[in-house]
Amino acid sequence: MPAEDPRTRQEILDATGAPIVMFDKVSLAFDDKVILREVSFTLIKGHTKIILGASGAGKSTVLKLILGLWKADGGVVWVNGERVDQMGEHDLMRVRTDLGMVFQEGALFDSLTVRENVGYKLWEELRWPDDKVNARVEEILGFVALSEHIDKMPSDLSGGQRRRVAIARAMAAKPRVLLYDEPTTGLDPITATTVDEEIVKLRDLEGVSSIVVTHQLRDAFYIATHSAERSNGGVRIVQADQEKSEEAEFIMLRDGLVCFEGPAGELRRSTDPYLKTFLS
Asked: How far is CA 215 from the centre of its chain?
């Protein structure tokens, strides 16, 4: 008999290039309202899926199904090699430890400092000791360039800074998957770009796999066409080459159906009347 593989399940999945998230003909409806119709896609380790679509197209529903907050009526949802669509709450809590969620508007705790917001899960759920929590909070705030704001209250920060704190909080427990639900809504273009850059940095420098739900085309294309690299002890954002750009794939939802899936260049070249109208 072959020797038992000493690697963990996740190490085997990572080494074989297995999907991080996979939807296989997933459907969901509430009464007569169909939200998703046999939606299928695959997210590969270290890549990004950008989900576009009009309001009510089912974009945020995808994130809720990944988190197990909603259950699909049909089809299969896989996260990190585990089927979650029929999983109980106890097992879902374990799966969620490897998922980070960035909500619309940031959703910070107003009564907690930046330090306490970022370290909340580490203290309250994972029960890390104070010294370990503080070290990780300082590390991740340095990564998002907010170290000097560590003891401020959310009300003392700008909109863009609050979103970056939300990203830091989602990253604190070092999840391999980050889910972003309209992360730049309500921000001006310049501030939104600072948030986009953090998404790019986490993907390219930390190897985080991500799903970005947005209706902001400018941000979607920025994330898809830029990459991060270390330079002279710092980090810089550069225009991605074609191969790197194709690692970020777009999914366009329309009435619960996937009407497009592919890289930025292919989306821009599409002659489909609905896509052309949406992109105009």
From this structure: 15
Map residue 74 onto helix, strand or coil.
strand
Per-residue pLDDT of the chain (280 residues), as tens digits, is: 445 555 454 554 455 456 899 999 999 999 889 999 999 999 999 999 999 998 888 999 999 999 999 999 999 999 999 999 989 999 999 999 899 999 876 689 999 999 999 999 999 888 999 999 999 999 999 999 999 999 999 999 999 999 999 999 999 999 999 999 999 988 999 999 999 999 999 999 999 999 999 989 999 999 999 999 998 878 999 998 888 888 889 999 999 999 999 999 999 999 999 999 999 8
Domain housing 207: 18-98+177-185+193-280
Are 76 and 159 in a shared domain? no
> What CA–CA distance (Å, rounded) separates 107 from 110?
9
Q: Does a structural domain hold residue 221? A: yes
Asked if 68 and 116 sit in the same domain, the reply is no
21-30 and 226-231 as β-strands: parallel, antiparallel, unpaired?
unpaired
Query: What's the pTM value of the predicted model, to 2 decimals?
Result: 0.88
If one counts the domains in the chain, the total is: 2
